[in-house]
Amino acid sequence: MKTFKTYLTENERTYNFRIKMANMPEKEVLDTLETALEKYELKSISKPKKTPIQEHPMDFQTLNNAEVYIMDVEFSYPSTADQLYHYSSKVVGVPESHLVVINKDHPEEIAREEKVKESGEEYTSKLEDSEYKDGKNVKAEEHYGDKYNETMLKELETRKYEFAKE
């Protein structure tokens, strides 16, 4: 028969959370956050992953045109998402409107991860692509330059506009 101590050591649990911050946190903020999370016996923290700029980001409906940075954290000490949210906001100094802490096993998070896996590809910004390719063989001349401007101006000349009379 096992002793109580043996059961305790074998029953080591980890607590996983996802921390989301709107707009890029500075390096000092990330270092302060990591130091503050040591209180919960931090096992690991991932590098922030950037999402594309969205008009109304998923978890930040009050913010406009923001990119979200997502970090996964793992603790040995039990905590709740709400407790981490208020603690992180207070200690690190991140405004509560720019921070979301959610349990990684939350059904919405699981559904989002499955949706990303279904799409099969990671999003890359077209602005970061120097050759302006969107997965197809697109020539840059088709989207800008003298030839493109000439065809655009010809197309505008052929359109008929009606103006309201006063």
Structure write-up:
The protein has 166 residues and is an alpha+beta fold. The protein has two domains: 10-123, Alpha-Beta Plaits (2-Layer Sandwich); 127-158, no CATH class. 34% of the residues lie in helices and 16% in strands. Strands 1, 2, 3, 4 and 5 form a five-stranded antiparallel beta sheet that branches. The longest helix is centred in the C-terminal third of the chain and has 13 residues, at 107-119. The protein is elongated, with a radius of gyration of 24 Å.
Task: Please give the structural blueprint.
Blueprint: H1 4-10, E1 15-22, H2 27-37, E2 42-45, E3 49-50, E4 68-75, H3 81-92, E5 99-103, H4 107-119, H5 146-158
Antiparallel strand pairs: 1-4, 1-5, 2-4, 3-4
Helix pairs in contact: 2-3
Short descriptors:
16% strand; alpha+beta; elongated; Alpha-Beta Plaits; 34% helix; 166 residues; five-stranded antiparallel β-sheet
Number of domains: 2
Count of helical regions: 5
- The CATH architecture category of the largest domain equals 2-Layer Sandwich
Could you estimate the helical fraction of the residues in percent?
Answer: 25-40%
Output the radius of gyration. 24 Å
**How is the main sheet built?**
5 strands, antiparallel
Query: Proportion of β residues?
Result: 15-25%
Gross morphology: elongated
Low-confidence stretches: none
User: Structural class, from helix and strand content?
Assistant: alpha+beta
User: What is the third-level CATH name, the topology of the largest domain?
Assistant: Alpha-Beta Plaits
CATH superfamily label of the largest domain: ACT domain
Order of helices and strands: HEHEEEHEHH
Give the N-terminus to C-terminus distance in angstroms: 96 Å
Total strands: the figure is 5
CATH class type of the largest domain: Alpha Beta
Overall mean confidence score, pLDDT: 82
